[in-house]
# Entry
Amino acid sequence: MFTIDNPTLTKAPLLTNSPLLTGEAPCPKCGKMHEIRYGKQKINGEWKEGYTLAFVKCGDNTYLVGVNNRYIGKRKLPVQPTIDEVCEDNIWQYRQNKPSRIVDDMEKYGIPRETGYKILLGRGVCKWLNVRRKLIKLKNAWKEDVNKTIEDIKIAKKGDNPIYLGRLRGRLETLQSCRKQIRELCKSDRWAMPDYDERGRREVDKLWGQDYFSASKEVI
Ligand SMILES: [Zn+2]
# Structure
């Protein structure tokens, strides 16, 4: 059971409306930033997302990081570096994956918001961030399928239909293998550049003065 006294809690940093942190919190397990998820609570008889309990997901585990919209994790909240400071070592500190955030950044460098959205939509960035989101949801849906199949196998073991049982076992193996592959893709490195963009790979290496991408012929 988790306890925290009120004076400590009121001194803890806010999870939302904090200049340090909006949308992500350091993970108690791995220390990286993960998206904050809020638990559902009953408000006027209806289940709604509330700020009472906040969690982060790390792999398949969930960790409590907030109570009453206050950050209770032991790890220090990192200060968000500016976009100019991005490098391989600090990239995990950046909030990612929302087109509006990219448009915010571009606006700071003089690109009007309208142009920013046109670039991201026209060049496929919005589409693929959307696919990314759906991939994550698919991975979670497959987890449920895996659990359901494990339950079905338990029941089938008590029955007398070995062909059906064998089919279920095959299904489980396939599901687990597919899920593992999709999970690895979702967890892959942030410091990445598509293999088909040779110009991008060369230019990034030149800018950072490193051999991150251009030497590698890896096909992703
Ligand atoms: Zn983690």
User: Anything to note?
Assistant: The mean pLDDT is 86. The two ends are 44 Å apart (CA to CA). The CA atoms of residues 129 and 218 lie 23 Å apart. The pocket of zinc ion is lined by residues 27, 29-30, 32, 34, 58 (CB under 6 Å).
